[in-house]
């Protein structure tokens, strides 16, 4: 109804989107055919039926498997194009996109293939939709820091075309501290730093992301709410949290959408934003996430407007571009 139209039309920035997580089953099947890659699924329905998760690792296993169909720069461009076309329909004006080079280099795909395909999609989105975009290179935290360094060195020729670095994959048992040196190197190279923390991991991982990785933004951050001191610090520092409601529901970070803490975050003075994380796997793009959170928690236009405003405030936009969006 009216609130849905308001949500759809609301100009937004998307700050937490894994491009490999935007691979829809239809494109997965088409690329499998194009590249002669074997999948354990025969139909789109079989793929969707497999998307039942009770924790982060259940999802990651199937997400890395799906990414195996991506082989050429054209594949990565097509993946990015599909995301930006869908984001444009949700009134996304700016998107900062995660990608996982190690998922591809481990299969023998050179990082340059990934970079060139995704950079082409970003440029195309600017021309076709007027969406500004940038890429954030994520290190896989289940691998060791030496592998992260090797990835960072391999990305050297493209560093001036990256917004920043991030940290994703299996959180528990892989604290931010493990990546302190490679994040310091990224900071010294002038890159922004973000990290997933407090999705499944404890509040101490959020503190480590702040103190040891010097993050400019926090991805998820849900479990920070368990620590009043940490909440006070995040509020005081106006730290942006990239919250992902449908992801939280699908990965059982929350039991139900009516138990989601998004409005509590705003009430605590946190700069929370709404994002889609892995929309092809979690059942919705960014406007679907706003709608689900609004329905679950009874968010009004003022709260939804604040969340959208926060998304631009939390973006890595030059001041001159930021004012255009506020
Ligand atoms: N958490 C950790 N790793 C990920 C996620 C996530 O939500 N999505 C894709 N990789
Ligand atoms: Zn994520």
From TrEMBL:
InterPro entries associated with the record: A_deaminase_dom, ADE, Ado/ade_deaminase, Metal_Hydrolase
Keywords in alphabetical order: Hydrolase, Metal-binding, Nucleotide metabolism, Zinc
A Pfam family this chain is assigned to: A_deaminase
Residues binding substrate, per UniProt: 278
Cofactor binding, per record: Binds 1 zinc ion per subunit.
Catalytic activity: adenine + H2O + H(+) = hypoxanthine + NH4(+)
Protein name: Adenine deaminase
Organism: Sphingomonas morindae
């Amino acid at each position: 109804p009216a609130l849905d139209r308001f949500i759809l039309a609301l100009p937004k920035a998307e700050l937490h989107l894994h491009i490999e997580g935007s691979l829809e089953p239809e494109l997965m099947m088409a690329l499998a055919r194009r590249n002669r890659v074997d999948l354990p699924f025969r139909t789109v329905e079989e793929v969707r039926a497999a998307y039942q998760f009770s924790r982060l690792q259940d999802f990651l296993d199937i997400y890395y498997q799906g990414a195996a169909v991506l082989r050429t720069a054209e594949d990565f461009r097509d993946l990015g194009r599909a995301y930006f076309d869908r984001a444009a329909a949700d009134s996304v004006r700016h998107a900062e996109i995660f990608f996982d080079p190690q998922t591809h280099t481990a299969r023998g795909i050179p990082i340059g293939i990934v970079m060139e395909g995704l950079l082409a999609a970003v440029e195309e989105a600017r021309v076709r939709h007027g969406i500004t975009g940038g890429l954030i290179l994520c290190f896989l935290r289940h691998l060791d820091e030496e592998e992260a360094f090797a990835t960072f060195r391999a990305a050297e020729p493209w560093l001036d075309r990256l917004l920043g670095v991030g940290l994703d994959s299996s959180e528990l048992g892989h604290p931010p501290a493990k990546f302190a040196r490679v994040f310091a190197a990224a900071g010294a190279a002038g890159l922004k730093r973000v990290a997933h923390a407090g999705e499944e991991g404890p509040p101490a991982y959020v503190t480590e992301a702040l103190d040891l990785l010097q993050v400019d933004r926090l991805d998820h951050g849900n479990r920070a709410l368990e620590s009043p001191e940490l909440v006070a610090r995040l509020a005081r520092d106006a730290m942006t949290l990239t919250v992902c409601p449908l992801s939280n529901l699908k990965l059982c970070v929350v039991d139900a959408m009516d138990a989601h803490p998004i409005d509590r975050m705003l009430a605590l003075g946190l700069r929370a934003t709404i994002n889609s994380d892995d929309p092809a796997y979690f059942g919705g793009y960014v406007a679907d996430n706003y709608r689900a959170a609004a329905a679950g928690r009874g968010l009004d236009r003022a709260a939804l407007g604040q969340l959208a405003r926060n998304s631009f405030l939390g973006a890595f936009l030059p001041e001159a571009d930021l004012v255009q969006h506020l």
